[in-house]
Every structure is written in structure tokens, then in C-alpha cells.
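Repro:
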Amino acid sequence: GGGGGRFVGTTARLRTELIDMILTGQITPGTRLDQRQLAKTLQTTTAPLREVLSALESEGLLLREQGIGVFCRVFTVLEIEEMVQIRGVLESLAAGRAAERITDEEVEGLGEIARQLAIPFPKSGEKEFLHTHVEFHQKILTIANSPRLKTLLRFHQFIDQLLLNCASPMWYVEAHDHMGVVNAIASRDVKKAETVMREHIAPTYTKRFDALRKRFGEGPILP
């Protein structure tokens, strides 16, 4: 886009705020974005806003219909399933890389977060749990030290929060064991870390997909 460096601070803020509006359900799937209204709400001008909308469009959170406007993307059950499979592969790659690089101090830090994730939480604590959960996987990514993986995974880590707002009764979140992942990475065994991470991700989704299929078939997931 145009404008170069002028917008950098603004676009970063707008990006965060827009994603937040999508993830918290203030902008619901399928709705058309009123750019003028949005610029007013976010206290910005249309130029940086347009730049951010294009970025989120290329990341797959928004969809542009030529001549009609920009819409909040609706995902189908099949698409989400594919995204979860991709996420499993990417996360396991991150775990393998982390196993080669992790320090004892980082093992400690990761274990600390894993212990928080094992504690059952009330229904009202879902958001907080998700936040800690993303932090756990982000930390592994940081240790893995691959900017490219980080970019690829950024989108896939939104999925849980997106679905929690869209289909919360079916897309529930529950505390589950992360210590196995920590131990596998701490063993410094690349293959083991990769396998344990992949097996960690898949089962937590099986039941939830069954529930989504009952409700939406393979079609669009709408609030």
C-alpha cells in the first residue's frame, strides 16, 4: 500500500483492534464492513484503515467481493478442519525446532505455563485460559526461532477464539495436559517432540468437530 512509514504505528494499532473486534464477535462472520463507520469507531482515516483491511484480507480473516465491499469471513466446517490439520503440522515442526534449541531456563518457564493450563477453570475463565494457551504455544515458537513459522501460525492460533464466539456451546475449551509436550521438548529429542505435539493437538479437536458437524454439516459456521 501507499503511505510507507507514516502509518506504521497506526496500522499496527488498527490491526490489533480490528482482529480483536472479529475475535470478540463485535464484527460477526458474514457481515459487510462499513468502512466509514469503522474509521470513526477506530478514530482513524480511511487510508491506513484500507491498508489494514487489505492485509487482513490476504491473511484470510476478511473477504472482498468485487463491487460490493469487504466482509468478515465465514468459515466452513471443512475449512476449519483443514486449518487444524495444518496447525498440527506447523506446531509439531515448531516443537521439533524448540527441542534442538531450548535452554534449561526456558524449560522452567514453559513448565510454569503448562501447570497453569492444567487447572480446571470456571466457564467465565475461558478467555483467560485461551490467552494463556496461546502464550504457551507462542513461547514454543519463540524458542523455535523461526519468524516464518511464526507468521504462518499466527492465523491458525486465532481459530479457537473465533469459534468460541461463533459456536460457543459446541466449541468449548477445557483444561488439558501440556506437561507431556514440555517433557518431550525438554528431552531434546526432535522426533519425540514432533510426535508428542501432533498427538497433543489432534484429540482436543475430535469431539468438537463432531458437535460442529451435527449442527452445521460441512457448511458455513454462523453465529
